[in-house]
Amino acid sequence: MKTKMVFLCSFMVLLSLINSEDVTYDGRSLIIHGQRKILFSGSIHYPRSPPEMWSSLISKAKEGGLDVIQTYAFWNLHEPQPGQYDFSGRYDIVRFIKEIQAHGLYACLRIGPFIESEWSYGGLPFWLHDVPGIVFRSDNEPFKFYMQNFTTHIVNLIKSEKLYASQGGPIILSQIENEYQNVEGAFHENGPPYVRWAAAMAVGQQTGVPWVMCKQDDAPDPVINSCNGLRCGETFAGPNSPNKPAIWTENWTSQYQVYGEVQQLRSAEDIAFHVALFIAKNGSYVNYYMYHGGTNFGRTASSFVLTAYYDQAPLDEYGIIRQPKWGHLKDLHAAVKLCSEPLLSGKPQSISLGQLQQAYVFKEDLGKCTAFLVNNDSRNDVQVVFQNSSYLLPRKSISILPDCKNVVFNTAKVIPKLHYYPLKVSTQSRSAHGSHQNTSFSLRAAVSLNEGVNDIALLSVMVGLPDSGAYLERKVAGLQRVMIQDDTAADDLTKDQWGYQVGMLGEKLEIYTEEGTNKVYWGRLSTTNKPITWYKTQFDSPAGSDPVAVNLGSMGKGEAWVNGQSIGRYWTSYLTPDGSPSQIWYNIPRAFLKPTGNLLVLLEEEARSPLHISIDTITVSRVCGHVSDSHPLQVYSWVVDNQSNEYQNHHGQRPELQLKCPQSKIISRIRFASYGTPSGDCEKYAVGSCHSVNSRSIVEKACLGKRFCSIAQSRQYFGGDPCPGLHKSLLVDAQCS
């Protein structure tokens, strides 16, 4: 018995040592517990979602094939006043990282502490602005003093909770500064010394994990320079040392949206192409920015940025899986992981397959081989020959061959699609304002003056502080110049004749809270709406578990609170060029709600009536899939034959269409089904010249009443070939309820 106990203790000590090993790297990848790793990561920011959502978000990220969750540390939230720290509620960074650990994932902590992130003042606390002699992000002693204080405070907090991988925790990577090279030149001789100081200060924290500097080609050893952007496989010059791995810290899954501009979307196919290209060119770490954007609660968004942040990410603002991005990237991750051994230990080789076609091949000494076949032609599908076999490469695509023979994934072949629809409504604009591209503007208005002395009061309402640029401490906002003029003279009122007050009385009294509402008199709703008006009402929580949003499409501009918590700024009167508001639905996390009697308070800056506001739920009501006989088989059905080292499919030899409704919903109706040559896609479709008459009945039999169903794309499944000799596909649109 005594001998067994000694053995057990020895084993536990050994296990502890293995799990507490420092993270290192070489020219191929990060090395964790002695093993090279290809890692897929996703940005999820803890302040942009309530803690009650964190577990679900991380779980969905893991299901989507991620290994790492990446987040910034938000200085202005954590240190609202010098030396006063706040890590409560949504600011609980330790709880968030422990949640990541509980799901068995790694974490990347980007301390910054300047983060940009479309976050007000780039994450810098505004009190820094008043420090005498300060110059932000420069070789400036006051700034370096406060920056080092905060960085050290965060590192010590993380160390105290044993959250670095060197302590057995999940954090494998940290970042200091953020995209500094964009502004370094503006600081002249004070730029490069600051870079060297920041790197040395970070490394001196002794975390046991590597540090990165993104967009910083001159990052000094041992700090790793990394890439941010849309196409790092094409644009990244590579690590500045052969001993550093190629890391992509921000792969933008869409473009953050600002008020007044049309949303810029990015397709799942384009994201997958550039990820596969980066991996093919020796990349080993890819982070999606954002994987879940969440909500810019309160006034945390930077100038003109929407309250909804990166809603087109794989997990949207409400945490709902957004297809096809989520599913297509999940398949990509699985395909790349099939190639891990040759990618990490094989010898790379590049082979020309044509003018715009290339093969990236990785071969191990023991014979294992992986290939990425790239077609850079954005207009034409191309047939290529690789190792005596012919492959059809769709335009602008990459085929992944984990055994250099079988195609298990192609970046252009997207199978699942999923849609939910709240429709937008149009409103009319009556405000005077700048824009994201040109923030300054002039307002001319007629005023009536009395004889003698007149008192003038102007309200200037900002839409977020700037988040980037050199000499951020010098940037000014608000009122710049006021002139009153008639036909004969002009009085310039820009000098010392003004007093000012920051904020409003209603905010200081917190009349958006249950207690604060009793501090003021609330009158009955008038038929004559006036600007700068507070409104309040109560509502009950919608039944069920679907996400909740308030429709403010009938309002103008202002801020909204629910049960005392700001759900963000709204600006529905500022229309995009196509005549629609940038955002009308504003997220109300269910964690903010009570079953009944929820308090909704609005500060409406324009003269809009609240009578048409509604409380809605966001639900996935449609699932749609489109698969053709040219699609690769399901990635998860491929297994390697240990003798031949080739991949074989043991779960069916035809592509499958899969439909899946969200939790608590089933497929209740088949809206459209066609096996043959349907035209269009999930957005707009029709029966083509070839169509199996059995399509709807067979799909209904397979799917109705189920949450999930899988349908083989084969003529046997549909009772025969409706048009021999033609390539066929299957398109199904179903309703979930």
TrEMBL record:
Keywords: Apoplast, Glycoprotein, Glycosidase, Hydrolase, Secreted, Signal. It comes from the Eukaryota. Coiled coil: none annotated. Its main location: secreted. Residues 651-737 form the SUEL-type lectin domain. Residues 1-20 form the signal peptide. It is found in: Secreted, Extracellular space, Apoplast. This is Beta-galactosidase.
